Amino acid sequence: MPNEKLVLTHRPRRLRRFASRRAMVEETVLRPADLIAPLFVVDGSPAPEEIGSMPGVFRLAIADLVKECQEIFALGVPAVALFPKLDPKLKDENGTEALNPQTLILRAVRAVKQAVPELSIITDVALDPYTSHGHDGVLNAEKDNVDNDRTVAILAQMAVMQAEAGVDFVAPSDMMDGRVGAIRKALDAAGYTDTAIMAYSVKYNSAYYGPFRDAVGSAQAAGTRLLSKATYQMNPANRREAIREMQLDVAEGADVVMVKPAGAYLDIIREVRNATRTPVAAYQVSGEYSQIHAAARLGWLDLVRTRHESLLAIKRAGADMILTYFAKDIAKAYKG
Fold first, then answer.
1. Is there a catalytic annotation at residue 89?
2. 260 is catalytic
């Protein structure tokens, strides 16, 4: 019969009937305080330059970077992650510019910390922005692989210099074995016991990094956007290995562990979250950001709803904090 009612004890839709009820039972909430904004810095005083493969993301001179950080912090985003785009003339096989006391990233950190001292600053500890070949470390004698131990020694020096400049977190993203322990030892020996380590513990050899490599120029250095880092970044097919990598980093002194990428690895985020009490970060990488924008520009997706849903899924999976190029836009929307 058309008007016949079902006899149901449980009707889950009761709690979805009105917005107020939906708000009362909402399980996951996304706030600006959950977000970290990755930003790109260039030398000199050029006007902000939009990255072609990352709509709405710009390379910023230090003065513009400072202004952007002030705006981001005012919107309630507590941290930024800074990445340098160097002049190719400064790059060489050993990434020696990384150890220049006046290198771009250190000058940028000092300027931002002076202007916005309460903002947490995270800096990348890896050699790919500095090497002429685009790899995250120095190559072995045969030039066919990254030399793990030589690279770790350089990374430890980089971390101490970044701590001296005033960063709150050093973030080794290189995936060399033993680098977290070496960095922690070096920081403590230099007196930077309060400088935290946000380790890229579970970083996959992903196809989603292409736009980022354009942004920092490591793709240009290598002569290809398809540079393979399979000998040090993790195999996307592996799940158990993620827990092993995370546990090693925690044992070596990581204060925060990270899963990267995020959207295609929600299962890994949940695995890591269940396996540790250490705070978990996830990086919604450049390719994830760019594909959402591309689909929205074609009219296939709603940009505002999709960006929010993508980040909500990452937090629901177990991330305590999310690095995302949507950070500022989400924070603006939250402020309403």
1. no
2. yes
